[in-house]
From TrEMBL:
Segments crossing the lipid bilayer: 34-50, 62-80, 86-105
Entry keyword set: Membrane, Transmembrane, Transmembrane helix
The organism's place on the tree of life at top rank: Bacteria
Protein name (record): Uncharacterized protein
């Protein structure tokens, strides 16, 4: 958990969005829900792939926040905002928040909670 916490938080968010798309409402995945699931999957993949750098420890969180905003825009623009869409927006926000607070350590040894490397 200490190494992959941010990625696990993003994966959990993607799974919840996919489950909601498949099981919520009419029990079928329409075009709008496909876009929602694709953005959630891109969030999980992006958070996993972005390495932490000493000067950019917020990189994984930035990916999650940018894609959460894209999720909100896609949801409201593609299908309008109804009661069911609020759940997807809440899930996107919770995913970004989970990524922000979860721990992570990249392969280069830089951790999300490590102190910044002093400049030379």
């Amino acid at each position: 958990m200490e190494k992959y916490g941010k990625a696990l938080a993003a994966i959990a968010g993607a799974v919840l969005v996919a489950l909601y798309a498949a099981l919520g409402g009419d029990n079928r995945v329409d075009a709008e829900e496909t876009v929602q699931v694709a953005i959630a999957a891109a969030t999980a993949i992006g958070v996993y792939l972005v390495p932490l750098a000493p000067q950019y420890r917020w990189g994984k969180t930035a990916v999650a926040v940018v894609l959460a905003v894209l999720q909100a825009l896609a949801t409201t623009v593609l299908g309008g905002l109804d009661a069911g869409e609020w759940i997807v927006l809440v899930l996107a926000g919770l995913t970004a928040a989970g990524v922000a607070v979860a721990p992570a350590v990249s392969g280069n040894g830089v951790g999300s909670r490590s102190p910044a490397v002093p400049a030379r």
